[in-house]
């Protein structure tokens, strides 16, 4: 069994309009997932440096970032990042370029966990436009299908899809099962399931939910979601 989580951390700017990376990290530690997909993990302007610094992660958490090497001070690709536990091994990783009018992307990593289990994880933040979301979903699915090595796969992120079962959700559901995580946006009054976790047929989703703690309600405008998965 592994636990995964997805979190649009909004650059650690909370609903109180304060940027507090240590609060974001506290929320992640509350969840205690083995693998975390982050969205909006880098600052928007300038060098787009990571909000959760290497020092903060190494000194105050059990996580390390997957090194995509896209920019010197960034954690991921277009704000998408993956965190794994320090005893996990990253076998391979890459950024996935997505068709888009505005900067969008996804990240992928093959991870061997402490028990020896290998899973492929994809983190994403899709477009506000429904047409571009479907194109991006198709690009991700095609990229995974074309991969030389195949592993049990978990996809996570902010899909920006307000519909219940149409649009990009229908495209993904042809290949992956959705976790019943619940409504995650807006953090103060959740009304929409914008954030999603999906798993390939080799995996079984055993439990899922929204992490709705006092800290999570103020740390971002999204609540984090999680799922436990049997490999």
Kindly describe this structure:
- With 231 residues, this protein is of the alpha+beta class.
- 20% of the residues lie in helices and 31% in strands.
- It contains five helices and twelve strands.
- It has helices at 21-31, 54-60, 130-145, 168-173, 214-219; strands at residues 2-8, 35-39, 63-65, 81-85, 89-97, 105-112, 118-125, 153-158, 177-178, 195-199, 204-210, 225-230.
- GO terms for molecular function: endonuclease activity; exonuclease activity.
Q: What's this, in brief?
A:
This protein is α+β, with helices and mostly antiparallel strands. 20% of the residues lie in helices and 31% in strands. The strands form two sheets. The chain has a six-stranded mixed sheet.
Annotate the secondary structure layout.
Elements: E1 2-8, H1 21-31, E2 35-39, H2 54-60, E3 63-65, E4 81-85, E5 89-97, E6 105-112, E7 118-125, H3 130-145, E8 153-158, H4 168-173, E9 177-178, E10 195-199, E11 204-210, H5 214-219, E12 225-230
Parallel strand pairs: 1-2, 7-8
Antiparallel strand pairs: 1-12, 2-4, 3-4, 5-6, 6-7, 8-10, 9-10, 11-12
């Amino acid at each position: 069994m592994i636990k995964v989580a997805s979190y649009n951390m909004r650059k650690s700017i909370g609903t109180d309009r304060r940027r507090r990376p240590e609060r974001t990290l506290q929320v992640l530690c509350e969840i205690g997932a083995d693998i975390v997909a982050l969205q909006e993990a880098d600052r928007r302007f300038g060098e787009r440096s990571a909000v959760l610094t290497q020092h903060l992660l190494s000194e105050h958490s059990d996580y390390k970032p997957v090194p995509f090497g896209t920019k010197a001070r960034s954690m991921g690709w277009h704000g998408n990042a993956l965190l794994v536990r320090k005893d996990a091994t990253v076998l391979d990783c890459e950024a996935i370029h997505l068709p888009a009018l505005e900067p969008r992307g996804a990240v992928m990593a093959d991870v061997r966990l402490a028990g020896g289990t290998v899973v492929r994880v994809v983190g994403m933040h899709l477009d506000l436009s429904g047409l571009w979301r479907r194109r991006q979903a198709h690009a991700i699915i095609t990229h995974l299908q074309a991969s030389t090595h195949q592993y049990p796969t978990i996809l996570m992120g902010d899909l920006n899809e307000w519909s219940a079962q149409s649009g990009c959700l229908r495209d993904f559901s042809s290949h992956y099962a959705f976790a019943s995580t619940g409504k995650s946006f807006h953090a103060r009054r959740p009304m929409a399931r914008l954030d999603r976790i999906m798993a390939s047929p080799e995996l079984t989703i055993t439990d899922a939910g929204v992490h709705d703690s006092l800290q999570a309600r103020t740390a971002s405008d999204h609540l984090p979601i999680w799922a436990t998965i049997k490999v």
